[in-house]
Amino acid sequence: MSAPAAVRTSPVSSEPLWLRITLIGIALLFMGLFLLVPLFSIFYEAFRQGMVVYWAAITEPDALSAIKLTLLAAAIALPLNAIFGIAAAWAITKFDFRGKSMLLTLIDLPFSVSPVIAGLALVLIYGANSLIGGWLEAHGLQVIFAVPGIVIATVFITFPFVARELIPLMQQQGSSEEEAARILGASGWQIFRRVTLPNIKWALLYGLILSNARAMGEFGAVSIVSGHIRGETNTMPLHIEVVYNEYQFSAAFAVASLLALLALVTLVLKYFVERHTASSH
Question: Is the pLDDT of residue 1 over 60?
Fold first, then answer.
């Protein structure tokens, strides 16, 4: 005999009303104090002295350079993350090979290692006194304290996001559709373009959105490899720190508001992708 409906009811729905209200209130209070109030304060301080001061702060040469460099690093990192994420997820979910568990562990490395340590490691590898860095500089390519170092640091910090979104989905989907397409005579590229990619496109986009958010807001690793050269190697987070330490609070909050606005746009995109993904299932 099946269990009564009352027994099958979720225990959450049977909690007292006062407890549910209390828990919801605590969650809303936490979000208000630690998320909404700081976000409102950033925009308030950014516009407190008027639009003229705000516009001057975000259009002065050092700020424009920081904005362009941040967008450039993200624009380079995202395609590389997509390529690596798809390749890693494909290899892990479609093939059995020695070292698969090690590859999974290495993918999570940027999550477990401090970004500052990652930056120091890049300095040891690509610095002028290292074997690789010395050879590169001898051939006219400077990595550390230059744009290439910032791009490499950004890629290192962000590359797990796409792979980590694709791997569970591709494991769940299996490889039956790809095998059927191969039996019907499709080539590898046709299988990827017409079967695999349509099935993973929303998870891929979700991973890229997360990567973009991390790329634009990264501070630790980029701070180590940039050298803090104003107008050349400062990204938006680094520029904010520099002008804030110089007591240019309006300029700092103006650029911070741009970074916060980019984060809000990312959250909106993330919401729509999650909503579309949920509706498709």
Answer: no
